[in-house]
Amino acid sequence: MLSVELTDLGCSPIVNENWPSGIASSIKAGVQAALETSPLPECILILVCDQPGLGLPILRNLLSTHSSQRKIATASRYRETVGVPAVFDREVFAELLQLSGDQGARRILLRHLDQVAAVDFPDGDFDIDTPEDLAQLGLRRS
């Protein structure tokens, strides 16, 4: 069922039945679904659901930077590296489909680093993976 928050955004949920095989299967499910749309999208925004510091300003900055710089990807920059959320141009869709297991999209960003624009996301290195992380989030916000 589509969340109330997404109903006006034209989103279509994609269920990844193969999720136990790793994050790459989720990326591939999303890319494959995008490839089946018409017209074919110029780019894909990949993000994760466990970065509590992520907000609309970062997403808008990623999309506008990608639009203006026209590199093969525009990634978030945090903790001296690049990662998601990131926008990937159509040129690298095939590489996203080649990921496997627990390989995330960072591998592709690092492979093409000279062709990747970056947007600062200082809180991007903090994600919620454990109950301890959730407790840490409460401390960060107090």
Topology overview:
Elements: H1 23-35, E1 43-46, H2 56-69, E2 73-78, E3 81-89, H3 93-97, H4 106-111, E4 116-120, H5 131-141
Parallel strand pairs: 2-4
Antiparallel strand pairs: 1-3, 2-3
Q: Would you write up a description of this structure?
A:
Strand 2 and strand 3 form a beta hairpin. The protein has a 4-stranded mixed sheet with strand order 1-3-2-4, sandwiched between helices. 35% of the residues lie in helices and 17% in strands. The model has no long low-confidence stretch (mean pLDDT 90). With 142 residues, the protein is of the alpha+beta class. It has a single domain (4-141), classed as Spore Coat Polysaccharide Biosynthesis Protein SpsA, Chain A (Alpha-Beta Complex). The chain has helices at residues 23-35, 56-69, 93-97, 106-111, 131-141; strands spanning 43-46, 73-78, 81-89, 116-120.
Number of domains: 1
> What is the rounded Rg?
15 Å
CATH superfamily: Spore Coat Polysaccharide Biosynthesis Protein SpsA, Chain A
- Amount of beta strand: 15-25%
CATH architecture: Alpha-Beta Complex
CATH class: Alpha Beta
How many beta-strand runs? 4
Strand order of the biggest β-sheet: 1-3-2-4
Percent in helix: 25-40%
InterPro entries: MobA-like_NTP_Trfase, Nucleotide-diphossugar_trans
Protein name: CTP:molybdopterin cytidylyltransferase
Keywords: Nucleotidyltransferase, Transferase
GO molecular function: nucleotidyltransferase activity
Task: Provide a brief overview of the structure.
The chain is built from five helices and four strands. With 142 residues, it is of the alpha+beta class.
